[in-house]
Description:
The chain has a twelve-stranded mixed β-sheet. Strands 9-12-15-18-21-26-29-32-35-38 form a ten-stranded parallel β-sheet, with no helix packed on it. It is flat and about 80 Å long. It has 330 residues and is an alpha/beta fold. The protein is built from four helices and 40 strands. It has two domains: 3-95, MurE/MurF, N-terminal domain (Udp-n-acetylmuramoylalanyl-d-glutamate--2,6- Diaminopimelate Ligase, Chain: A, domain 1); 101-316, UDP N-Acetylglucosamine Acyltransferase, domain 1, CATH 2.160.10. Helices cover 13% and strands 30% of the residues.
Amino acid sequence: MEYTAKFLAQLLNGTVEGDESARATKFSKIEHGKPGTLSFFANPKYEPYVYTSKASILIVDKSFEPKEPVTPTMVRVENAYSAIADLLKYTSKLSKKAKRHRSCLSWCSPLSAKLGKKVWVGPFVFIGKRTKIGDNTVIHGHNNIGEDVTIGKNCIIYPGVVVYPGTIIGDNVILHAGCIIGSDGFGNAPRPDGSWEKIEHLGNVVIGNDVEIGSNTTVDRAQMESTIIGNGVRIDNLCQIAHNVIVGDHTVMAAQTGIAGSTQIGKYCILAGQVGIAGHLKIADHTTICAQGGVIGNIRKEGEVLVGSPTIPVKQYMKAYAKFKQSAND
């Protein structure tokens, strides 16, 4: 894909400062800028690279005032970080123009499975009975899509994904390689002799629209009813979502986060890396839990930032940490 500075300004509602015909065919980090590449500047700590970059085009904030001469043609936008995100999304969509394809090495239930328009199916894909797949969805190779599954429009299922029977997936969902949707939860009842009896899981997983789930993440099916992932949720790699969990709309969680069974996470929450949340809890909307936070009780107040294990409010934690540090130095 080749972009001119003039086209980028039109696409991103910006203005050109320099050569409107400047062209770029690749993206680059600002510190690696070379002729023919496009970079962006949004973080002040990278400003020195603005003056040494050899990139052809540089996207910057409208408010940016250079202290030295700048070689690249600048495209000034309202917010450089948002603009580059929009541009990357635009480029990605162009490279993934939908076309109907079904590999002869795939197997799709011939009588009852229903595939929409321009569905792309790679090799060694299994699609079970009564499963429905929406228009423009791409299913890469080596995927197993079970029976009675519903997958919406414009989804991307990367290689090695397993979607268990009965799962419901909305539109514009991305499942990265190796994630497992709908496996049994960790449900076991103790017997009198100390051994364990498996509890059957007869529910399913329901995933909303515009969700992205990272590689090797597992979302377990409910014992009864549904494990629910709300609209706009972003889940990183290597996360564990247990049975009957509810994750509210637009919540994000980073790698190695684990949520135990029947916990309800509110909307617009942020769970940093390696957060652990015990079962049967309720987490209020707009809660932020910092890295390696351990949650063992309900969080009822919206908008709190929590640190530590077990978690406490960040101001309280910093006061306690200051005293702990002082006593350690005495």
